Q: What sequence folds into this?
DNA sequence: GGTTTTTCTGCACACGTTTGCAGAAATTCA
DNA sequence: TGAATTTCTGCAAACGTGTGCAGAAAAACC
């Protein structure tokens, strides 16, 4: 038995329109009756119905968020940033988890469309790059985080992968390494491509040769680190490895230890992201810091601006990564 | 310019009711016209409006989820389980992050109430224990994860903290330890209290004395691990420590290393939760495994059952934790 | 062909809000 | 006291959908 605006109207002895106006703080209704109505609403335990409101106002105050996996610490931190800004501005967060599963991906988009969210933030690179046109049809502002956008109707906040990868590789070069491997990310991702490109660029600028044999494929997760092992069955073996991300690096670190290979004495390691656990690894992980929380916030602010006026030109944001030097890449002397 | 059911009706030359029925697969409408309507709907790019539907059906197919912090790997894993079952059953997930901030907590509850979610899952122990009556007013089924419930109208899925803590402590005793410390969790939490109780129980049953000086306060996060240091300024110093959770244990591990104290040679360490990173610590962390993903799933299934029939008696679920033995508590010989 | 049955479709109301517009009540002014 | 103004309130339509009920169209039967 839900209490509606009409029930409040009845006990307060006014029409339901007056109640609506009173609770909205509309100056058309007198101070005295407003107080009275508020008292009655309180007593009845009235809660406005967001569905009905959204239906007539054509705004839901809801923000759709599509992510690959919430268990990924990178993603979780981004969502935290999104929620912060969204919450501060009176927006709800509707979460869609895609799991890199095509069926889930289209379903997530469909659900957000049906619930008429006011904007969508996508932190799932696959969805971003595969469903561009599909997303456009939603007809609300869309902000992508760390994924390429095929059209001009999408907006994005992204870290400069190429620069970050270059910084990481240059750091290893500066430490005296000449044979540097790269554990790359999952195929088909923009980030995988660009981080590889940054790695190559650093090599080129340092006049070091590029050896495709030194590139191994990971999956962006800890398990992918196991791949690192194959590095040692070839010559020359790398003395340093730049990993696609921290998860990969942590996996690699683990596998190396099991083989009795010491980090950083035998091989140096650099990750990407700076997730919370990077600092607590043993040895602590050198990495390229992405301001994940900040990126979530920026994306949401962008979405808010676009919702106010979709026509306003909002430039894409590219954030440089920052090298965080820790023990995994500094050989003790 | 949104396309509604009426627009489809117009081009298909039928009434909007027929369209509604056709798209719902209602057998009242003939196969032939259904196909025709579906074709037109498709062509116009029609997407049903969940708001309008929810308004009339009094069901939103949305599930409210309140969590403390999404950046906590424990919580993230629970949410993953929730989303899995919710998604499989056609439910959306609306996320509310409370951050242990009273203002946010009441706001999260208010938002979910306004959006008329069909059920609420609370994975934020503070909200669970503080806002019992407040939650009840929402008038939908509520399932708490790992938090005590003050009334009978709430349901819960929880791990057996006391048993888990006992298992952990007994394991340390079995390893020959006689002076065992405990790094407890944040004050006021049910889990903190029960894990401490389990620890004491194990000591009692082994006829070991309980020394309050061996209890130190953490905050449930990595930073709290720094507290462990104070242990060594007293005698007798513990040779093993049971930590409130893995995050705390990781912090402790880090602090110990910085002081040159070796794990497990000098001191053994046991955590609680078995978050993904526990296995990748150095040394890998012995811990009590909570099936977080599974717990999220169970809670959601429970919510689904309650939504079908709130009167049906659904017993609370208590899951035993499982001891996962790793290197952090096994002294090498 | 008329009657009964079956199959399908449309009307109209409901869900809980917001909001333009008209008009009632209260106030001010002459 | 009556007219003009100001302040407030209610009516009614709209948002997009679902659904009971009546009735039209088609099919089946005699």
A:
């Amino acid at each position: 038995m839900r209490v509606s605006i009409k029930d409040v109207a009845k006990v307060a002895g006014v029409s339901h329109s007056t109640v609506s106006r009173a609770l909205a703080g509309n100056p058309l209704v007198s101070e005295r009756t407003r107080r009275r109505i508020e008292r009655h609403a309180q007593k009845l335990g009235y809660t406005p119905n967001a569905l009905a409101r959204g239906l007539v106002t054509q705004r839901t105050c809801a923000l759709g968020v599509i992510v690959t996996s919430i268990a990924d610490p990178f993603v979780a931190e981004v969502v935290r940033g999104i929620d912060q800004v969204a919450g501060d501005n009176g927006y709800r967060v509707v979460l869609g988890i895609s799991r890199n599963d095509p069926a889930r991906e289209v379903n997530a988009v469909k659900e957000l469309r049906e619930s008429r969210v006011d904007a969508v933030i996508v932190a799932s690179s696959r969805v971003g790059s595969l469903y561009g046109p599909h997303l456009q049809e939603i007809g609300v502002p869309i902000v992508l985080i760390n994924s390429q956008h095929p059209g001009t109707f999408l907006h994005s906040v992204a870290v400069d992968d190429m620069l970050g990868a270059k910084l990481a590789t240059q750091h290893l070069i500066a430490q005296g390494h000449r044979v540097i491997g790269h554990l790359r990310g999952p195929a088909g991702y923009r980030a995988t491509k660009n981080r590889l490109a940054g790695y190559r660029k650093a090599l080129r600028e340092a006049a070091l040769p590029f050896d495709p044999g030194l590139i191994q494929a990971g999956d962006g997760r800890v398990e992918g680190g196991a791949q690192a092992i194959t590095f040692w069955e070839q010559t020359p073996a790398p003395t340093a490895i730049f990993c696609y991300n921290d998860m990969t690096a942590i996996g690699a670190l683990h596998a190396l230890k099991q083989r009795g290979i010491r980090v950083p004495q035998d091989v140096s390691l650099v990750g990407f992201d700076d997730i919370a656990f990077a600092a607590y690894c043993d040895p602590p992980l050198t990495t390229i810091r992405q301001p994940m929380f900040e990126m979530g916030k920026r994306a949401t602010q962008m979405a808010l601006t676009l919702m106010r006026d979709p026509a306003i030109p909002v430039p894409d944001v590219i954030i440089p990564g920052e090298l965080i030097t820790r023990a995994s890449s500094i050989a003790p002397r």
Q: What stands out?
A: Residues 14-18, 21, 28-30, 33, 52, 54-58 of chain A lie near DNA strand D (CB under 10 Å from a C1'). Chain A touches chain B through 50 residues (CB under 8 Å). The mean pLDDT of chain A is 91. Chain A is about 40% helix and 15% strand.
